[in-house]
Task: inverse folding
């Protein structure tokens, strides 16, 4: 369930379009930031730091080729990125599941998720307010745990807090095949809130530094627990998740190198207690 949660968070976060943190043209969807991630390490309460992700930029070093995912020291899986011209066309996982991207002019229109035998399992569509994604709709046809994992590792898993992803994952696993709608609001170039029928997440206290995942389009199958807020130009300092009477507050503390964060400390407080996670990022 935890993996499911993270992947959907990643989906929502990927949609913001801006040129500020990439060396690409505004009409170009290639993810090519000024500083390229090589490794992401993670340390949770009471645990030793371990390698979480390894990023392979290929021979040309200007396109993300593959992400390897680790569970402590063991390789857990990988996502392979396939391009058409300057845009992501597919992301394939090691089991044969894949996501396929469709564009309307310069905008990402939808993402479709397929089984290894090419059955359509799920679809995500995007609506825009000018250049920014304002609504994301997830259609569940025959969603299984592998596809839910793909969504968690995608931009949805990088946008929502863990509890929000759990709710989304539970809905996607429901045999009723429920449709889920996310409404996004912005303040300038950063996400202000994400709202569903069941909860709202607000973001605030942004810094003025570069978000290294801005304009990243990940829709894959592995767990990404670092909430990267990839729809935002800058890095948030605080998020508040509200579901009925339940509130989860997370504050973020950063250290930087050349305008990009090299450590992100996430301090989470809820009625169930508190926890701290530190992610350390190594760049090329």
Result:
């Amino acid at each position: 369930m935890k993996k499911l949660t993270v992947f959907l968070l990643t989906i929502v976060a990927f949609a913001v379009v801006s040129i500020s943190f990439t060396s690409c043209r505004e009409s170009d969807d290639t993810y090519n930031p000024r500083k390229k991630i090589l490794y992401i390490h993670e340390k949770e309460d009471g645990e030793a730091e371990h390698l979480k992700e390894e990023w392979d930029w290929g021979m040309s070093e200007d396109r993300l080729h593959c992400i390897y995912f680790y569970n402590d020291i063991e390789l857990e899986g990988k996502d392979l990125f396939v391009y058409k011209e300057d845009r992501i066309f597919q992301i394939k996982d090691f089991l044969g599941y894949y996501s396929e991207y469709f564009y309307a002019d310069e905008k990402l229109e939808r993402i479709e998720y397929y089984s290894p035998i090419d059955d359509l399992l799920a679809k995500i569509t995007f609506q825009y307010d000018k250049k920014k994604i304002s609504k994301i709709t997830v259609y569940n046809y025959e969603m299984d745990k592998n596809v839910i994992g793909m969504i968690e590792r995608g931009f949805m898993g990088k946008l929502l807090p863990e509890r929000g992803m759990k709710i989304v994952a539970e809905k996607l696993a429901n045999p009723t095949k429920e449709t889920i709608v996310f409404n996004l609001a912005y303040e300038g170039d950063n996400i202000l809130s994400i709202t569903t029928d069941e909860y709202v997440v607000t973001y605030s206290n942004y810094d003025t530094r570069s978000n290294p995942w801005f304009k990243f389009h990940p829709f894959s199958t592995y767990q990404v627990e670092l909430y990267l807020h990839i729809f935002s130009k800058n890095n948030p300092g605080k998020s508040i998740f509200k579901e009925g009477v339940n509130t989860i507050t997370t504050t973020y503390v950063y250290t930087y190198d050349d305008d990009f964060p090299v450590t992100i400390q996430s301090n989470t407080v809820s009625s169930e207690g508190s926890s701290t996670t530190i992610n350390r990022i190594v760049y090329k």
Observations:
- The CA atoms of residues 22 and 33 lie 4 Å apart.
